[in-house]
Amino acid sequence: xxxxxxxxxxxxxxxxxxxxxxxxxxxxxxxxxxxxxxxxxxxxxxxxxxxxxxxxxxxxxxxxxxxxxxxxxxxxxxxxxxxxxxxxxxxxxxxxxxxxxxxxxxxxxxxxxxxxxxxxxxxxxxxxxxxxxxxxxxxxxxxxxxxxxxxxxxxxxxxxxxxxxxxxxxxxxxxxxxxxxxxxxxxxxxxxxxxxxxxxxxxxxxxxxxxxxxxxxxxxxxxxxxxxxxxxxxxxxxxxxxxxxxxxxxxxxxxxxxxxxxxxxxxxxxxxxxxxxxxxxxxxxxxxxxxxxxxxxxxxxxxxxxxxxxxxxxxxxxxxxxxxxxxxxxxxxxxxxxxxxxxxxxxxxxxxxxxxxxxxxxxxxxxxxxxxxxxxxxxxxxxxxxxxxxxxxxx
Length: 395
Ligand code: MG
Prior knowledge:
Layout: E1 2-3, H1 8-19, E2 28-30, H2 35-45, E3 49-52, H3 55-64, E4 71-74, H4 75-83, E5 90-93, H5 101-109, E6 113-116, H6 119-136, E7 140-142, H7 145-154, E8 162-169, H8 187-191, H9 200-208, H10 210-223, E9 230-234, E10 240-246, E11 251-255, H11 261-269, H12 300-311, H13 315-331, H14 339-350, H15 359-379
Parallel strand pairs: 1-2, 1-5, 2-3, 3-4, 5-6, 6-7, 8-9
Antiparallel strand pairs: 8-10, 10-11
Helix pairs in contact: 2-3, 4-5, 5-6, 6-10, 6-13, 9-13, 10-12, 12-13, 12-14, 13-14, 13-15, 14-15
The structure holds magnesium ion.
The site of magnesium ion has 4 residues, from α7.
């Protein structure tokens, strides 16, 4: 079952599925409003259930493809039906944003293995997700390239043998841009990522380095390593996808071409490795790998992520919500680039962040932080309340 099947991860998941037709059957697909792409996927894979954003998308889908034998659902409830379908062994969580939270949680609760590309899930509710997975025995397999790299380097070793997790970061398009010009960064400049091709939200997160901050939070939950032992390393070539330093001083790095199919296939084939039609590294030519520390002053989002982990409770959910609202405002041309870290910081400082005991605690924190972020943006003179901002999450 694939959540977010028409996005950049989802389409690559389907490429792997199509490369190994004897190993996979597509049980369910969930997309948002890109019904043209979804229609083509339905025609090709004939899933038993699909889900789209709303009634309008459902009607448009029905005009594009024969839906006999295909149940069509809408909204988060529809996504849950896809992710928990009785016939599915694994759910791929590749929807972008907070919308992936509930369907992923329900999948773990139902004992489905989850191949996880949706960052927000662990960022918002890491502790709860891990608890559900532990109860049902469901496996959480990271698709994000950095966490896949850590997963590969660790190869089953636990926190006691880990000295540090070293998350590599390309540094984004503004690594070498002077800090005092950050307020003039345009949408187009921020969307031009040097190495990975990704959706707009994640590309902006990469430009602010919030993407790496979210990954630090994810790594903390996935591998049970406290934040003080998770370090970010700038590596512009994106050849080393992350490293683990073990307690004996050995560092293992995972290296591969920058093709999302590598981590996706690893998650889908784990614990096996399958022969892939993906190119390998070319060591016949000279290459240089740069590694260095991040500039924390230029990219305050990184510090905000560590701060959210330190505060604990629902702070990371608030950080994520504030980031989503601020990024949407920037993409709509309603807020400058520098407003993104500032909004997050103000939201983190504005409220107490109580413990997250249930998913409702998390969604409440999400709502509160979104409102707070819109207030902050409105105060700055940017209309962060327009329809472009993502809708609050509902259960
Ligand atoms: Mg990543």
